[in-house]
Write a structure and sequence with these properties.
23% helix, disordered N terminus, 2 domains, alpha/beta, 7-stranded parallel sheet, 21 strands, TIM Barrel
Length: 412
């Protein structure tokens, strides 16, 4: 079992807005003197990103997807910050996440995207969460629970418009249309999910948006939701009544190939624990994959793939990979990333720069989450959601302090 504690490590009032409430910086996880890495989450930037996305879809309600432990940033801290900014509807993956979120957003609507597992109805009622129903079998199970318990918290219906993952078929959903004529039909949201929203020119976007709009006509009076982070930037036709941004809230670019409209939220640094000289021709790390082409200075930092940094960002002879910022300059990684450590080639730095105890920046400055994803040949979603629990975590921009309840690895 892992425990998260939160203590105030600083307080400041905004210099630009003297009348605004004071903000606090909260520390969580291992202490800074004990942890090899430091993860900083800018909650004020998170809040501004939510507001920016809401402005992009001004006619719709802006919800927030905070699954996977708030995209690796802490579901409680993220949920509380967004609720303070005005977010009233949240989406999570499963019931354990819903339970954690409910503790900090007592009045919000919480939808569980993976739906209701058999026998989970009483827990939905206890948490006051709403399943996203994706099949007729699941709907029959849910209806039996509602009929027996008289619980009236509601549920969403998920229709598959082209993703071919979860969701009822269009034909199955249309057959349910007469049910909507009843006063207590039990549904609070109609939703689908875009498969290719990050590629605006993909023909599946037009197909899904058009089909969902046709379906929506048959369910007038029931709020509808289609757009995810990138879907928000596909225009008004995708917005419907409610938009569901997720990864964009945390600074990942929802418009690949264009300037990122989001503010960075996450910063990642790790301590240099040793600086060593490697002779020309010697190799660094497992497999001897990286060879020094000259006498080199190598900084070893206390962060590896066990901390969530992708091993695929390793470097080798003839193959570039990840980079880090040391003493204000970008430096390449050297060799394979190991479980708890990685090496950085700091040969180009002036002698004396890059000392033991100083921090190297892995995310921050001009290295974004999307950059790290590109180093590893993956996506920003994976980089964020793999962030580990060994970091000293610093939350900036909060307005109150809360001591966090114990966490289990199963719900992280």
């Amino acid at each position: 079992m892992m425990r998260r504690s939160a203590t105030v490590i600083g307080m400041h009032a905004s210099a630009q807005s003297p009348a605004s409430p004071p903000t606090e910086t909260i520390a969580a996880g291992p202490s800074e003197t004990e942890a090899g890495g430091r993860l900083t989450i800018d909650l004020a930037a998170l809040q501004k990103n939510w507001q920016r996305l809401g402005q992009e879809a001004v006619a719709a309600e802006c919800a927030a997807v905070v699954k996977a432990d708030g995209y690796g940033c802490g579901i409680e801290e993220v949920g509380e910050a967004l609720a303070k900014t005005g977010c009233k509807t949240f989406f999570v993956a499963d019931l354990p996440e819903a339970r954690r979120l409910r503790a900090v957003v007592p009045a919000a609507a919480i939808y569980v995207l993976n739906g209701a597992l058999p026998g989970s109805g009483p827990t939905f009622a206890e948490v006051n969460a709403r399943p996203v129903i994706g099949s007729l079998v699941e709907l029959a199970e849910w209806d039996r629970f509602v009929a027996g318990s008289k619980w009236a918290g509601g549920a969403a219906i998920h229709v598959d418009t082209g993703m071919n993952r979860l969701g009822m078929t269009v034909e199955e959903l249309v057959a349910l249309a007469p049910r909507l004529q009843k006063e207590n039909h039990g549904f609070t949201l109609l939703m689908s999910h875009l498969a290719c929203a990050e590629t605006p020119s993909h023909p599946l976007n037009h197909k899904q948006i058009s089909l969902f709009r046709e379906i929506r006509v048959q369910f007038r009076g029931l709020p509808a939701s289609l757009a995810n982070s990138s879907g928000i930037f596909l225009g008004d036709r995708a917005h419907c009544d409610l938009v569901r941004p997720g990864v964009a809230l945390f600074g990942v670019n929802p418009t690949p190939g264009k300037p990122n409209p989001m503010l960075p939220v996450v910063g990642l640094q790790a301590r240099i624990i040793q600086v060593r000289t490697v002779a020309k021709g010697d190799t660094v790390g497992y497999g001897g994959a990286w060879t020094a082409k000259r006498a080199s200075r190598i900084a070893i930092i206390a962060l590896g793939y066990a901390d969530g940094y992708p091993r695929a960002a390793s470097t080798a002879d003839g193959a570039s990979g990840g980079e880090a910022i040391v003493a204000g300059r970008r430096c390449p990684l050297a060799g394979r990333i190991s479980m708890d450590l990685m090496a950085i080639d700091i040969t180009e730095l002036p002698n004396g720069d890059g000392r033991r105890g100083e921090y190297a920046t892995l995310i921050g400055g001009d290295i974004s989450v999307d950059d790290v994803a590109a180093f590893a040949g993956t996506i920003g979603y994976e980089v964020l959601t793999r962030l580990g629990r060994r970091y000293h975590r610093v939350y900036r921009g909060t307005e109150s302090v809360h001591t966090k309840e114990p966490l289990t690895s199963a719900s992280d």
